[in-house]
Design a protein that fits this description.
The structure is a single chain. The chain is of the alpha+beta class. Strand 4 and strand 5 form a beta hairpin. The protein has a five-stranded antiparallel beta sheet with strand order 1-3-4-5-2, with helices on one face.
Length: about 90
């Protein structure tokens, strides 16, 4: 499901003018409910980069949730111009 859009800003950029990869994790954490992100410990994080994101790009953040007996996993995909830019998976 679509969670929200994010406009890549100057403060998101690295020295090469691309969004710094740490920002993808921050944007993903912002998509997760505070009662999960602020309480449960993170067990694992996976980030896959597919496409550079630049200042001014609008990133659509899509999220899927997988609730298992021993874990709760969030997969957040960042899409720019109908192309996957990154996928972040956070397991609690």
């Amino acid at each position: 499901k679509k969670v929200r859009g994010h406009l890549a800003a100057y403060s998101d950029l690295d020295i090469n003018g691309h969004v710094n990869n740490t920002r993808y994790l921050a944007w993903a954490m912002d998509c997760i409910e505070p009662e999960v992100a602020g309480v449960k410990p993170v067990k694992d994080v996976y980030i896959n980069f597919s496409k550079e994101v630049h200042e001014g790009d609008t990133v659509q953040l899509m999220m899927a949730v997988e609730n298992k007996e021993d874990s709760l996993a969030y997969t957040i995909e960042g899409i720019v111009d109908d192309h996957s830019a990154f996928i972040v998976r956070i397991v609690f």
